[in-house]
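User: Structure with flavin-adenine dinucleotide, tokens only please.
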Amino acid sequence: MAETQRSWCVVGGGMLGLTLAWRLSEVGQQVTVVEAAPELGGLASAWQLGGITWDRHYHVTLLSDSFLRTLLKEIDLDDEFEWRITQTGFYADGGLFRLNNAIDYLKFPPLNFIDKVRLAGTIMYASRIEDGRSLERVPLTEWLIKLSGKRVFELIWRPLLRAKLGDNYTQASASFIWAVIRRLYAARRSGLKTEMFGFIPGSYDRILKRLSERLTARGVSLELGCPVESIERTGNGVQVRSRLGDQQYDQVVVTLAGPLASKVCVGLKPEEKERLEGIVYQGIVCASLVLKRPLTQYYLTYITDETIPFTAIVEMTALIGTEQLDGRSLIYLPRYVTSEDPYWALSDAEVEEHFMAGLRRMHPGLAPDDILAFRISRVRQVLAISTLNYSDRLPPMITSVPGLHVVNSAHIVNGTLNVNETVGLAESAMPKLLAAAEPSGQSD
Ligand SMILES: Cc1cc2nc3c(=O)[nH]c(=O)nc-3n(C[C@H](O)[C@H](O)[C@H](O)COP(=O)(O)OP(=O)(O)OC[C@H]3O[C@@H](n4cnc5c(N)ncnc54)[C@H](O)[C@@H]3O)c2cc1C
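Assistant:
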């Protein structure tokens, strides 16, 4: 059935907002995307660093990322993926170890034989659980210690969790690690059991440019550099206030993180605001470095030493190859942080000093003139932590204000934050949004 044409405003031009705009325009809706930043993409946007353009935060796609790959097929980009097998390292006890296959694992010195059996058993067990919902009631730390033992938790799980969640891991439920393990298992090619990571040459910059061209061709307006100040129901629709003035739409979908959405949406009930503001987010302080030479062969190096100020090293060029970047190497040093982390108060120069000291401890051969560029990204609301009983406390997508909807990454339940799940969230929200836009349709 053809949809009645309505005017829609999508607030936030990240991958979620852009996918919603793509789907709404596909069914004939008139769409405007309003984005605060001067460019599209949000967390997935690209930036300039030492003369190269690449993602502000590291991004890979898995072979099994079917929602994202379907979207990229529609904009004629899926064929451009390059798929590679990557290597993983582990920095423990002052040494760097390979950890790619069963043989590396059996040789891995920090764990004894019993530890290894318990760790492998935990992963196998988690990968076979079909529905992670019941794990939402179980504290993550408790679950892992029960299955793997305290030693394995301290030596392996804690550093892995800190690399993904920072100190927020203490608040997470066991459904978080279940979702991570499930995603990584889905990535393995059947039979070979090998992870394949993919990227599009040119980075997300290329994806975002193509998406923006195709959206424009469908008549979607993309308003950049326009922070939305407030959204309010008026007699004849929903009014969005920004530097464009007060604009009226039939329907508005806000894709901003909970506390930001709560701030701009006027007229929500106190319990709706409480739910939006009650989501625990983790942030990130993430450095990008351009180096003259490769650092290691590992795409990802986990770090068990908590005196190193970042939680992992992501060597992007170990995946994409230095030929993408005129022979230079690109690495990221992420520090996942709680909202109280002392790093929020540090200047960029101080963060650089601490991070470089940590990197030189791990790689004493790294000379100052090996570093060609260093740039820091900070984002306060990156990932909604799957706290205990998370799904029971989710804010509604269809709010009590007619025509005003909030869909954001906090609605990814029992999943991990990645573009595939973000696109999947847009797909699952679409029928609810279209139904709510009908005259009788205010329900979630
Ligand atoms: C360090 C890091 C590594 C990652 N690695 C991967 C990976 O390897 N693979 C993968 O698939 N995914 C990865 N992701 C996750 C991926 O980036 C996200 O899933 C995705 O980009 C989220 O999109 P979004 O639209 O939900 O949110 P966002 O990108 O946060 O979009 C929200 C948008 O709203 C805008 N906004 C905020 N306030 C206003 C306002 N008042 N008015 C208008 N606009 C506003 C923001 O500027 C932003 O553009 C990673 C993320 C990070 C941070």
